Records
---
Amino acid sequence: SQQGEEDPQALSIQEGENATMNCSYKTSINNLQWYRQNSGRGLVHLILIRSNEREKHSGRLRVTLDTSKKSSSLLITASRAADTASYFCATDAGGNNRLAFGKGNQVVVIP
Amino acid sequence: DTEVTQTPKHLVMGMTNKKSLKCEQHMGHRAMYWYKQKAKKPPELMFVYSYEKLSINESVPSRFSPECPNSSLLNLHLHALQPEDSALYLCASSPVTGGGGSTGYTFGSGTRLTVV
């Protein structure tokens, strides 16, 4: 199964700054999703962008999708200490509920 | 109710033990999943149930045995595990629509399993 791959994998920023993470994938997709995970516990779904969408917003989150480059980015604006977490992109390639996760980004927001 | 509940939160078991992990949701989701996550790694899909039937087994060793008694419950039976099976086991649910529809997957908080 395909997996997204994020770059960079570790990011440390000051509170109030913006954080950007990238994700690339290898095959055609139905949608791409971003999840957050705090301290090795459950994942929280943040946002889903469909293959026919180019940009989507949710609160302080902005996701872009470039299917021609097979890449996506997640921007967190005005970061807060509570945004400290690991962020994963995940892709559903065949619509068969086989959701595959990328390597993940560790984001540390320094108060 | 918009949660997936997993029990227990922590489990320590010997290599000869038999134990079960439990997962419950009441969102009406008809797809349920087991993922395994090692430290600092992404979750890896183990099993997918769709309408209470096993639809995907990602070549998981037989010492892991899933069960879906009804549309709200998902179990993972463990037997004769190895120390390398120690990990965080995550349960998730979603609408059956591919990729979780418009809402994605809902994950439980996981069971942290240690095999000694």
---
Amino acid sequence: AQTVTQSQPEMSVQEAETVTLSCTYDTSESDYYLFWYKQPPSRQMILVIRQEAYKQQNATENRFSVNFQKAAKSFSLKISDSQLGDAAMYFCAYRSARGGSEKLVFGKGTKLTVNP
Amino acid sequence: GAVVSQHPSWVICKSGTSVKIECRSLDFQATTMFWYRQFPKQSLMLMATSNEGSKATYEQGVEKDKFLINHASLTLSTLTVTSAHPEDSSFYICSASPSRSQQYFGPGTRLTVL
């Protein structure tokens, strides 16, 4: 079974600085999707960024980018120019590309605090 | 972007009663919907996968007779907590998947059982 590990329970960053959240996963599959979700205090899960495993190019969404290292099974999230609104729980998630296996496997999350 | 709604957003009920939570995909069709449970300061725990027109697939350890799931249409799935007890109090979140690479979440329902 696939597993997702987030080794940083909590992180903090100064406003306008850059922070990187770590995520590693374990799988024997070659084709899959990786996600970062943000859960602010409202508890609404918000998709931050998505990466397809077959794509070598790292995904980027405005201030959010990933460092996808397939061989190392690593998928870190970099937040540039951190803003107060970035404060939230961040969850890394894995989803198989295999038919019939559509469920997300989540890590335990990293709580990000942004200091003014 | 795709929107998923949940109703109600919060509910308080007495022990022994049943509670129904609705999950709707508002602007897309979802053959698959998922139900999660989240305890405070913890990650999401998948309870079951709901497929339109067929029986739900429950994760190990989840009582299917207690947590009834119905996926009656491509835009609606319901979770009914039967004979609720205080230990069922939690935050329940649904998600809907329009494609394999996408999954959108509802805002969640806070259930409190007295």
